[in-house]
User: Which sequence fits this backbone?
């Protein structure tokens, strides 16, 4: 259980409280107690022995059959990185503010959802595209290829100080970029290629590079109109030849920083362009009438499924589920609506963070009663299908929904679940076992990680949390957590990363809320 504490909002504490864990995780994962207890003013973070560590990784779906690995850095090295960012914040903020194109500059907003908040949200993108395109005939749309995964950490110093200065003073810790470079590398076992996907600190690092590239691109094209949203460029030109020249300049700039343009997502198109997908407009325009609600719901669901098939990777079912929460569903239509929600989950498990609060609202606020057999079958199908491929995100969210709704899953799912070597899945499953909802679970694979060597490996989250909660024993019988200088202090301060008592369903990320309208 998390301790009650006075909440202090500083750059450091908000980076740990709100910006540490990826937003894609179920809300039972929390760093609230860490942020309340740890401070660079009261903890000498440099005194702890471990020099570097590995991230815990969690596989999430991306587009169609592609996946992405989220990185959850070790708390020691993430705290060190946060302390450096706080100390250098005025310099870093001034650097970002120098961008003439960015819509995603970051500002420290006390108590904000992610600690550092973008000055423009996703909803502003459509408006800015329309406003900035006026007077132009062509759009150059360009995308940086695998930005976070290919970012060269030494380029942080290049962006802050220029490549020439950074190379000449590579080991000079008076340069903020060198200090940041080292701190980022230490969160991922000293690797120089890529940064963890998930923490807001990585959003900051990407924005440092983006701002430097923006300045160079506009320097080569002084009257350039357009914008950048994270790794997407929207540039507006009068002629195709000018657009081609700007694209050549952008290639040069990105190459300078060790990055590449994605050729599959880069194009020059004649304006005007459609700002929003037509399927959003059509689904929004469909009315649900009380006198013919079942027919109208069937028409809406059918159209949503049709669009989801036509536009894979466009979050159609997420939009449809979110939009449907505005319908006044009648009691005699509940069975249809329930089937739509559960069918959408099976078809597109990525909507689980959107669906979880909808299901709870239907039960708790609207008084609808679930068909337990249908609900259990749907969750079982999601788990069985995705567990075979070790797809952790889908399994974790299905387990979380089963806990929220009190669904006891069949014995057949647990052997596949126990073979997924993922800390997020493991901790939710162990929580269910502890509460008597997963008695058949045999955690033999996860038990192998319960030793001191794993506190700084990719299994750090499981090795710490399952031990301090008493869910798994030490491999050799020693209290390896207490024996570690850093994690011993975490345990001594009752710091936890998994809140077994929370009943929160989920919180949509800002971009999804804006996108869904």
Assistant:
């Amino acid at each position: 259980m998390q301790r009650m504490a006075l909440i202090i909002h500083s750059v450091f504490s908000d980076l740990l409280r709100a910006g540490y864990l990826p937003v894609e995780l179920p809300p039972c994962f929390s760093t609230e107690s860490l942020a309340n207890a740890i401070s660079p003013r009261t903890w000498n973070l440099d005194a702890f022995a471990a020099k570097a560590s590995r991230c815990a990784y969690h596989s999430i779906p991306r587009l169609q059959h592609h996946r992405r690995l989220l990185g959850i850095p070790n708390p020691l090295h993430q705290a060190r990185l946060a302390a450096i960012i706080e100390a250098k914040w005025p310099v870093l903020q001034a650097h970002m503010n120098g961008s003439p194109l960015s819509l995603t500059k970051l500002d420290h907003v006390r108590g904000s959802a992610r600690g550092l908040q973008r000055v423009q949200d996703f909803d502003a993108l459509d408006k800015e595209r329309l406003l900035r395109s006026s007077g132009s005939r062509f759009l150059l749309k360009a995308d940086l290829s695998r930005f976070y995964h290919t970012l060269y950490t030494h380029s942080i110093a290049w962006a802050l100080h220029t490549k020439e200065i950074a190379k000449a003073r590579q080991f000079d810790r008076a340069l903020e970029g060198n200090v940041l470079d080292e701190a980022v590398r230490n969160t991922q076992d000293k690797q120089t290629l890529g940064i963890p996907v998930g923490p807001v600190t990585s959003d900051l690092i990407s924005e440092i590079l983006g701002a430097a590239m923006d300045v160079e691109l506009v320097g080569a094209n002084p009257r350039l109109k357009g914008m950048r949203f994270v790794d997407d460029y929207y540039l507006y030109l009068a002629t195709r030849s000018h657009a081609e020249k700007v694209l050549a300049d952008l290639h040069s700039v990105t190459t300078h920083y060790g990055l590449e343009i994605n050729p599959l997502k880069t194009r020059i198109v004649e304006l005007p362009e459609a700002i929003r997908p037509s399927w959003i407009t059509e689904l929004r325009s469909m009315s649900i009438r009380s006198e013919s609600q079942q027919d109208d719901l069937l028409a809406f669901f059918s159209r949503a499924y049709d669009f989801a098939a036509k536009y894979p990777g466009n979050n159609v079912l997420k939009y449809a589920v979110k939009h449907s929460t505005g319908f006044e569903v009648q009691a005699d239509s509940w069975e249809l609506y329930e089937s739509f929600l559960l069918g959408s989950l099976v078809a597109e498990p990525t909507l689980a963070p959107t669906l979880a609060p909808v299901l709870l609202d239907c039960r708790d606020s609207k008084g609808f009663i679930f068909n337990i057999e249908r609900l259990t079958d749907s969750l079982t199908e999601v788990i069985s299908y995705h567990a075979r491929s070790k797809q952790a995100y889908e399994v974790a969210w299905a387990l979380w929904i089963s806990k929220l709704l009190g669904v006891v899953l069949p014995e057949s799912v647990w052997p596949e679940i126990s073979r997924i070597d993922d800390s997020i899945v493991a901790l939710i499953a162990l929580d269910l076992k502890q509460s008597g909802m997963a008695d058949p679970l045999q955690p033999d694979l996860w038990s192998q990680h319960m030793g001191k060597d794993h506190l700084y490996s990719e299994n750090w989250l499981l090795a710490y949390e399952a031990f301090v909660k008493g869910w798994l024993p030490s491999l050799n019988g020693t209290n390896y957590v207490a024996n570690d200088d850093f994690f011993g202090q975490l345990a001594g301060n009752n710091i936890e990363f998994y809140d077994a008592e929370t009943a929160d369903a989920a919180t949509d990320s800002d971009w999804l809320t804006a996108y869904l309208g």
About this structure: DSSP finds 24 helices and eight strands in the chain. The mean pLDDT is 94. Residues 310 and 316 are 10 Å apart (CA to CA). The first helix runs from residue 11 to 17.
